[in-house]
Amino acid sequence: MKFYNLLIRYRFWLSLVLIAGAVVLNLTGTGFWPSFPLYFVGVIGLASHFFIGPLRLIQEPMEQGNVDAVEKILDTIWFPGLLFKPVRSTYYTIKGNLAMMKQDFTTAEKHLKKSTDLGSPMPEAEGANKLQLGMMAMQRGDLKQGESYIRAAIRAGIPDKESEAVAYLSMCQIFMNKREFRAAKEFFRKAKACKPKTQQVVDQIKEIEKYISRMPG
Predict the structure, then answer these.
(1) CA dist list (Å): 189 to 87, 186, 198, 208, 213
(2) What is the H or E stretch that residue 17 is in?
(3) In this structure, are residues 169 and 191 in contact, taking their beta carbons and an 8 Å threshold?
(4) pLDDT at 117 over 90
């Protein structure tokens, strides 16, 4: 595994060395066919660098919470537009999440929209992206756009119960604002059914519970 990760990390430069070696062999009279394997492996290495990228290397630093290492790996992707579509979608998702960690919501929204437009190879990731876009829209006060994204997130599937509870609570707040109390109560019931444990979400449920029972509908 470590050898494979090293190979991915230095794949671009190794591929250039192989192609340079093939050119030297070719020009010194060895001929094309004896140097063909070096050309072939070098071209395959370059193609995989540009079309697949080094995203495999991100898993370990992400698990360790090493954001700087993740950003350095992403910086080696010089032309993200060349990445295969599922890989490109994952790339923009990670870029968006990193921007959110820095509270750069404008950049986060731009990257997450690109990922959503490309479509995710995993429906759960698509749902998480759309939920984040919905939450950002609500922060801007755009409840209509927020509702649209959060509905899409619920349809796509949300990867964990905590985030699912957040989605239902957000829909509850949207419908309370629209004074559609029956729908608001239904979304609140679904949020509670997720049994979230995150303190912030639990506190939000307790706060809404104080007055939602007094609502008509």
Answers:
(1) 37, 5, 17, 11, 11
(2) helix 11-25
(3) yes
(4) no
CA 164, CA 83: separation in Å to the nearest integer?
Answer: 31
Write the pLDDT tens digit of every residue in 129-162: 899 999 999 988 899 999 999 999 999 888 889 9
Please measure the distance between the N-terminal and C-terminal CA atoms of the chain and give it in whole angstroms.
59
Tokens at 59, concatenated: 């898993």
pLDDT-derived band at 78 (thresholds 50, 70, 90) equals very high
Which pLDDT score is estimated for 123?
Answer: 61
Please identify which residue in the block is written with the tokens 């790339």.
91
| Integer Cα distance of 23 and 95 in angstroms | 38
Measured CA to CA in angstroms, residue 38 lies from 16, 52, 78, 137 at distances of: 10, 20, 24, 52
**Whether the predicted pLDDT of 127 surpasses 90:** no
Residues comprising the chain, all counted? 217
